[in-house]
Known about the structure:
This protein is an alpha+beta fold. The N and C termini lie far apart (67 Å). It has 19 helices and 21 strands. It has a six-stranded mixed beta sheet. A five-stranded antiparallel beta sheet has the order 11-12-17-13-14. Strands 7-8-10-9 form a four-stranded mixed beta sheet, with helices on one face. It has helices spanning 29-36, 117-124, 134-151, 157-163, 174-183, 194-204, 226-239, 252-258, 299-309, 314-319, 323-328, 331-337, 344-350, 450-456, 463-476, 487-505, 513-516, 518-523, 527-535; strands at 9-13, 16-20, 55-61, 71-73, 76-82, 95-97, 211-213, 219-221, 244-246, 265-268, 278-282, 289-294, 354-359, 362-367, 372-374, 377-378, 385-392, 400-407, 418-426, 432-440, 447-448. The chain is globular. The longest helix is centred in the C-terminal third of the chain and has 19 residues, at 487-505. A hairpin with a 5-residue loop joins strand 19 and strand 20.
Amino acid sequence: MTNPSNRPIRFFHRxxxxxxxxxxxxxxxxxxxxxxARCTGSKEGCNEGxxxxxxxxxxxxxxxxASAADHVAPGLRLTTANACITFVPxxxxxxxxxxxxxxxxxxxxxxxxxxxxxxxxxxxxxGSQCGFCTPGFVVSLWSAYQRHVAHGTxxxxxxxxxxxxxxxxxxxxxxxxxxxxxxxxxxxxxxxDTRPVIDALRxxxxxSSLRYVDPAGARYxxxxxxxxxxxVWSDAHTSDPASRLLAGCTDxxxxxxxxxxxxxxxxxxxxxxxxxxxVEQDAGAGRGDVLSIGAGASLENAFRAIAQRxxxxxxxxxxxxxxxxxxxxxxGGNVANGSPIGDSAPMLMAxxxxxxxxxxxxxxxxxxxxxxxxxxRNHLEPGEFxxxxxxxxxxxxxxxxVRGWKLSKRYDCDxxxxxxxxxxxxxxxxxxxxARFAFGGMAATVQRAAxxxxxxxxxxxxxxxxxxxxxxxxxxxxxxxxLRASAGYRLRAAQNLLTRLWLETRDADPLPPTATDxxxxxxxxxxxxxxxxxxxx
Length: 537
């Protein structure tokens, strides 16, 4: 970055616009809250975005309305985030709410503390024991409460469980917390006064794009257009090859918190509206219509768009981390990161996705299946960035079966041991014309199982083809042993997922997904009720 013009980081917090001009570019919102703002309700648990004790809510103007479900007023949306892996400069132009902002003002001369319906319900339902995780649960419930009150809806118990999948409790357990989530809607509604928030955010929208240099000389730039991003990133990388693109900070935040890495130059993509677009369009050059997902689109919005078109990936969406991480993280970042257990890549490979790469004004495309060159390595050139992910839409009209499955030790918000994205194309006679079997957790990169695919193509999708594909997986992968799973388990699990695909897609008597999913068949919609009945006298 050359000749940055410094201005303070400006955001709305506790009823006023706050200016910060002395924070390190990698100072976390959690540290700023606790040490500078003296708002100590948010707690540091894991310091890596897993436990949710530090959950906060961010409010942003969004005239385009990426997801109506997130809005509490026209153009204003609320999303949860982990304060421990959110850098302070990324608050610029936004509003920040913490557990301190939830309770309504106390009435004059009233000695008792006024509580929000969320807090009151937690008290009445005994939803807190040691209390360390409680602020995060309350903030997540408050975010859900405000969105549902705004829309005049009431969530199901399972929807509340999904809302809280990014919050961990080791003491109370989830039954009383979910009870509180249901009870909070019984009280008189207390809606957020959105007018001061909207007015402040509109005022902040007039600020110039942030170019910030911290007291130690570290640089931070937040361009707002694709062209500006292309120029700023190329210049930054040329002047300092150690420069990093910063998107949701769900990975880079761990570099600083856990590895104590220095990051002298950051280019933030979160302010580039054009990088967040999700549209169906003609890809040109005879490639047909595609679903184009901007690399800066949140994981939540990107997964929602995919699940709307391919419902088989809904479970993958809901089990990818928890809402705070899905709101902050981007699908482009998950793909570009190249983790061997990045859950979006197997699904995207099964859908035959391509990547749109850009360096200044030059655009090129590469198949996602060919993008990775080794562990955490890819074909990105210096100064180049991922602009969009393109998924062909032609396959929706063809005879194609797609599935996505994830195996992990904890059902929600956990890292995969094995993740599979599977697609099978057949002609009118039932012959397999194409197969895309992609697996995460099986190699140094997410990759397709070429041998298993070849075993299926050209034949009927019967037990003979299935057996050949299962056997071929042993040659496609040599899984590693680690803390998440043994090599033997991974191979057997991957083979069994192919069997599950066959059971659901075989020509004769295919099974419905509910018949092959233990969680759906036994627990996912019943576990809360079962726990309540078991606890009854």
